[in-house]
Design goal:
It is built from eleven helices and eight strands. By secondary structure, it is an alpha/beta fold.
Length: about 250
């Protein structure tokens, strides 16, 4: 199975937003990424629009529809009414629901499925009716009962939060422990029929072990590390490096 790469454009947008200027262009760099072989684009619009702006979304949707019809658009966010209305207008192929407060700097934990199962189920049903695949952000805790509850919401996938794994970049023993916990959670998800995505602090260095441990990994979405590498290697070459790290 090929692990697909979705390029998260939030860091590009954050750099653009430092000035009242149209560069770097989010859609142009998205085009470069897709031309280099990325399988899709990811954004996480927040209410304060501190990185991706709501006005970016129709442009990214049009870029994919007009020039890369085989690619996917993934929109992440906390499922407020405003967020749900937004994704229903844009119609991404995938919606990744995250539990973080909109004011957080970045997502840093998964859903507590025991607490929010009843909250998420009608939301997932609403998005499924519109033909959007739903992925739920999940902690790598190895809890088989938890992922079974995620499945019972009607979601098609979970996205494993790989922040702890990425955070052990200078401690191979702890990274190995974190990787095994990711693997156990992924195995439990697969057992109940969920597909598995992953994202957060993934790099060219730590992707190959992850894909080796979870060979059925459907997709990774990567923003910060990929954008950092793009400053050194350029976007196109960086995408090719990450694709190779994914086993493509």
């Amino acid at each position: 199975m090929t692990t697909k790469l979705s390029v998260n454009l939030n860091a590009v947008a954050m750099l653009r937003n430092r000035r009242d200027l149209p560069w770097p262009s989010v859609t142009h760099l998205g085009r470069i990424a897709l031309e280099a072989g990325a399988h899709g684009l990811t954004v996480h619009p927040r209410p304060d629009q501190r990185h991706i702006r709501f006005s970016d979304l129709p442009e990214i949707r049009a870029l994919i529809d007009d020039s890369f019809p085989g690619a996917e658009f993934n929109i992440e966010g906390y499922p407020t009414d405003d967020f749900l209305d937004l994704v229903e207008r844009i119609e991404p192929e995938q919606v990744t629901l995250v539990p973080d407060d909109p004011s957080q700097a970045t997502s840093d934990h998964g859903w507590d499925f025991r607490k929010v199962h009843n909250q998420l189920s009608p939301i997932v049903e609403r998005l499924n009716r519109r033909g959007m695949r739903v992925s739920l952000f999940a902690d790598p805790d190895g809890d088989a009962d938890s992922v079974a509850l995620a499945k019972s919401t009607g979601a098609a996938r979970i996205e494993l939060y790989t922040g702890p794994y990425g955070g052990y970049h200078d401690d191979s023993a702890e990274a190995s422990n974190a990787l095994e916990m990711l693997g156990k959670t992924a195995d439990a998800a697969r057992e109940v029929g969920l597909e598995v995505n992953a994202g957060h602090d993934l790099t060219v260095a730590n992707l190959p072990p992850l894909v080796h441990r979870i060979p059925y990994l459907a997709e990774v979405s990567i923003g910060h590390g990929l954008t950092a590498d793009a400053l050194e290697f350029g976007m196109a070459e960086t995408v090719r490096r990450f694709l190779k790290a994914c086993g493509n």
